[in-house]
Amino acid sequence: MAVVFLDSNINLHSIQDDPMALNYLNTVVSCGFIQVITRSTRVQGNSHSLIDHVLINKHLSGSNHGTLVSDMSDHFMNFHQIATTDVKHKQKLQLSRKFTIENMDRFKLLLRGSNWNQILACNEVDQAFDSFWIEFKQAYDLCFPLTVTKLKRNIHKRNGYMTNGLLTLLSPL
Of all residues in the chain, what percent are helix, strand and coil, respectively (each to 5)? Predict the structure, then answer.
């Protein structure tokens, strides 16, 4: 998860009137982020603006964000609070799919047996894609179902650098 705090001086309250603000917001969204602060972050007299931004690329349940109104500065303070969980009591489960040779062969066979004529004849690109996706996803989910795996400390890698040798060293005698 990434959290980005910005004092960009681009007023997101003016995206209706300012093409630069709209372009900025579209760029933020196209890069996989969302702006979580929606209220004004600077108020002077009758003028208010949203020029301080907090961007996140993944929402975690229990996380919180907002703006603290204060006269310590001409800008209000923004925050993003990430919820913590007690790792010892949380059961570690992982969703995964099994991409065995048998499953891949079955998937290819299902795709070859599908009737694509209706999709190929469709002149509306969105409708053609939706039809394709439904057919593809059904075959995909059938051949590669999601399975829940309980992670075991000395079998499954916890980080990318945990090799089988390191896991063996960590196992109890």
Answer: 35, 20, 45
